Queue: 2 jobs
Job 1
Amino acid sequence: MSPATAPPTRDGCRVTAGSVAVAVIAVIAWEIASHLSFVIPEPLDTFLALGRDLGDPRFLAGLRETLLAALAAFVLAMLIGGPAGLGLGLSRRARVVFSPIITMLNGIPKIVLYPVLLPVFHLGYGSKIVMGLLFGLFPVLINTAAGVREIPDVYWRLARSLRATRWQTLTRILLPAIRGPLLTGVRLAVSLSLVGVVLSEFFATERGLGRIVLSAYSSGDYAGMVSTILLLIAISFALSLFLWRLERRVR
Amino acid sequence: MNVRAPDTPGARRPSVSRAPRRPWSGLAGAPAAVVLMVLAGVVAEVGAAAAWWAPDVLPAPSDLLPAAARIAGSPRFWQDALRTGAELLLSCVFGVVAGLGLGVAFWKAPGAGRVFEPYLVSFYAVPLVLFYPIAIVLIGINQWSVVVLASIMTAIPMTLNTWTGLRAIPPVYLRLAASIGCSRSQTLFRVALPAAAPYVVAGLRLGVAYALIGTVAMEFTTAQAGLGYQVRYLYESFDAVGMYAYILVIVAVSVLLTAVLEIAERLLPRGRDT
Amino acid sequence: MSSPGTGVVLDDVRVEFRSSGRDGPVVAVDGITQEIPAGGFVSVVGPSGCGKSTLLSVIAGLRAATSGSVRINGRTVTGPDRDVGVMFQEDSVLPWKNVTDNVRFPLQIARVPRAGRPRLGPGHRPGRAAARRRIAQRAQEAIDLVGLGGFERRYPAELSGGMRQRVALARTLAMRPSVLLMDEPFAALDQQTRLLLGAEVRRIWGETHQTVLFVTHDISEAILLSQQVWVMSYRPGTILDVVDVDLPADRDASVVSTPRFNALHNRIWERLRTEAMRGFAQENRFPA
């Protein structure tokens, strides 16, 4: 009954229309609210501010820096979290030793470690990439490990009865079997890497959208601030929506 | 700052099964965690003593612990801790109540649930922090802008987990409830919600964790008080030892909270009948 | 023990489902007019998908008939009734309650007056403690009746599937319903457990003399347990044959080797075979 394998149903279209309607209502509410309070920029002004910013090379450089840092953080999170999650899922001993500490680390508000990173990785790309990595690492790791652990035992017996090599077992059985949880991890890692980078930029950085948001805030350019935040949210929203749909399709 | 597969919509299996419970089984590795932490402390101590790095990069634990103890005795610390604690508590209460209500509402009206689902999934907990600058413009730099966003952060996993848990109830439970003449509220409170309890409790654990992460992250960005604010303040006044002490306290609090929630999750699901 | 107007009376019951396909509504059950005398034990057999569970849901008041009516002890069924106990095929034992609490659960629900309507006259409010004691006693009786004594504090996860269905049976019996509706209650169990539990049901029925409707797809089980077997057709479900089981009342499983049992079995199987094949062909979209 996977919704996406079937051709889009009427019902599915109606739900999408409903979701779009929610967004439209939110914009209308925003428009009304902007007339009630002077600190709320009008939606139109905000979109114009975005247009103005997108023509500004300094803004574009900031956008580029933030997205590049988030991309690097995400790729590192996948490269470290994926294999580590596999190991954790496959080895009972590794689980016993490491899972409490991973759970603990996962619960820490990692952003407070940013001042610790700054002297080591410096104010440029280094620190925020590491912070984005810290944000994005755990969902990949934990979801991969959980996915591996939930593989039905009969799959392993199947692999053995077919005399599959280790590589075949990995690529033909293990990875396809965990594609759902893996995609969940990827989806969370994408938006969390971005959030980690932007939060770092809120704190201290030289360039990036987070800094642009804060300087717009301090100079009272609320339209510019809101439009930049919405741009970030839109990027994260679009990516996670795409991955979420993909996730439902493979399930 | 994230999620285990079972808690996200889709993977839908609570990490606790109803089969024989062993609340401590997952904690078998706790000694290993302690050993690793002690090891990290020793490395930090030796490194600082041998001057492998400058003292303001990472102060020696032997300097840090007395500083942490001194800070823990100061009224300023308790003001900040109280502020963060109050924000956290309020966010959890609001978020849990709203999440339970929405989860039940979406279960009763699945159409509405599916309409809002993409937003809930995409804003799953943390990206909401990005709205904080907007919140401080609207509400001001005070505890309420933190509480509002942290409440939503708590409510989202709570909603999704409650809803998922209710959808996963074996249909026969509802037929049973009908056949023995349960009223609507009896069906909800005595059959449906207890049946969904493992998911609801998992949502609670996530929600509380997000509330803490969100609260500290927002205080850290801009605030007038709170533990997260102190880290920033001390960073900006170049008080490395004080800053590390606060970071240590925050880490300790979050580790404690995580442990309590983990244990609670293992103990609660079986529940008892009144 | 039977008097006119008591027991279960089905009058031209028809149930339609709205189908998503283009063929219009699916008729699950059609034109069923039958009667179970009070204290009678009737089994319904039929191929999968013949609507026997649907028929049971209608009698239980869990689903409304499209037309026709069901009367139980002279009252027309409009919804679930506490005088009618239902036992389901699926595991319906609540995992967060131990055996005793599961069995007590419907009694606790029944004790609380629904929608503020007192069940007893004003002024007559038995103390909570007394009510609790009565519930405890009734639950214990039901637990002992199904042979679960000693397992009161166990949780469902610690019990086998057969034991869990015993809990479900005890829970149904604790209500002391005058009508017992059983929807393939032992279908998910292994053959030996099913035989044992069937014998238990028959023993308990011998003690309580409830009116029983037992849905099953197992012909032997139907003959072994009941006084009468209704044979249902594949969709639309109608009653093809009503077979009176003229075997000794104190029969046990050894009766399966008697010629009379075989004759009954063959008669029912002859009726069912074509239906089962028709159902198989339709469900799998083979040309019939």
Job 2
Amino acid sequence: MMRSRTSAIVMFVYLLFLLIPIYWLVNMSLKTNEEITSTFSIIPNTLTFGNYITILTDPAWYNGYINSMIYVAMNTVISITVALPAAYAFSRYTFMGDKHLFFWLLTNRMAPPAVFALPFFQLYSSIGLFDTHIAVALAHCLFNVPLAVWILEGFMRGVPKEMDETAYIDGYSFGRFFIRIFMPLVASGIGVAAFFCFMFSWVELLLSRTLTAVNAKSIAATMTRTVSASGMDWGVLAAAGVLTIVPGALVIYFVRNYIAKGFALGRV
Amino acid sequence: MEKTQNNKAWFLVLPVLVIVAFSAVIPLMTVVNYSVNDTFGDNAFFWNGLDWFVEIVTSERMHSALGRQVLFSGIILAIEVPLGIFVALNMPKKGFWASFCLVLMALPLLIPFNVVGTIWQIFGRVDIGLLGHGLAAMGVDYNYTNNALDAWITIIVMDVWHWTSLVSLLCYAGLQSIPQAYYQAAKIDQASRWSVFRFIELPKMSGVLLIAVLLRFMDSFMIYTEPFVLTGGGPGNSTTFLSIDLVKMAIGQFDLGPAAAFSIMYFLVILLVCWVFFTVMTTLDNAETK
């Protein structure tokens, strides 16, 4: 019993370390700016929701959230759609250059966005996609598609090949087998891959900031620009930060039973 | 699994190939193009050979940024990997508390990078932050905005806060796959806690641990947003890592040639490390299946 008690203490300390900075952000978001700069308090003296009201009523702010949601959703759909057949190919067949192709895909996951920021800007400007949601969604495919292929391949390897063969003998065509039988089998893998695409697209700043100006400006970009423009509006900044955590927290809650397996990318 | 040899599988890979080629190869070619040309504006380019590469390789600025970057990634791995394993070993195995811990631990991973920077800015500032204010109250002279060492410590603690959970969750997934029988056998053999870890848990975690080290190395090697928001690369140049320096050069000063040469070498370093990891990983995979 001694051991489980020390474990509990370790976990308590670690979770406390994770939560205190988040608590401080929430605390700040519920204070007025005068209180933030004049007094130092662990809990707000006068509770105010003014900062949140500012964000939810000002189009410049809430459009940031809508834009981010749109391109994250687009990116997730595109990434999963193209990754599914590719992951199936990698998990079932050997073909010319498959190992090199897989490695090349992997390197794109590791490519620093800083290298791509400027060329992306020029590429999407020249084809007239600058400042659209689809531009950001496509740009994020750079690292999300390889990741999705990688995760899905791990899950698909776990499905025995006899499954495919039996279906073909039963007269299923490839397309029908894939959609009706195979996809439900790797549903948890698809969920996990979608979770990761959502995650990396949602948290990315550099590319989404470079590729948007007004119409598709992401919430992350809105936040950095407001910092430089208005100086010290800490309350609103903190409230915006809290609101960016909410979608992530919701997604985690829904996939909580798959998280552990998902983080291993089906490779345990 | 025994795989079938079939070159028609290329058709299944085609969509991925098109989309990734569009967003990877075309921009990369642009970069290569810039790296060997010079321009005076107006889209007029002049062949410049390898001059930019020579300039970057011999420049003091690149050397110091690379040095800081390697040091940073080294410290990050040295702290986060052992700490992540340690936390994973102490996580509850099942039940309500296991999900509780999982959800809370995954939380920092889904916070946008710039918000992570903002959180630590608000948390660390001496005038309004709990950490800064608390340390000042205890008489510690701490100010991350004008002391290089404090800035480094803050960024490292921030990164540990942000990413240790990833290592933990990966290791936790590895630990979950160990059958109870292994532990019972160890108990009968009266194995010490250390040998259980060394001979049962560590080998079972090695696969996922490799992924964790790879992801952590890569992501810390191209870290941009968090230090940019927190310190902006300062004080002075003390926290200007490779990506920050690159963006400054490319978008701030619009020095396309040197920035492109810089990008290519940056990418080659990453490619090299990636290849080493990939080789080790496939060798391990093959050893397991045999």
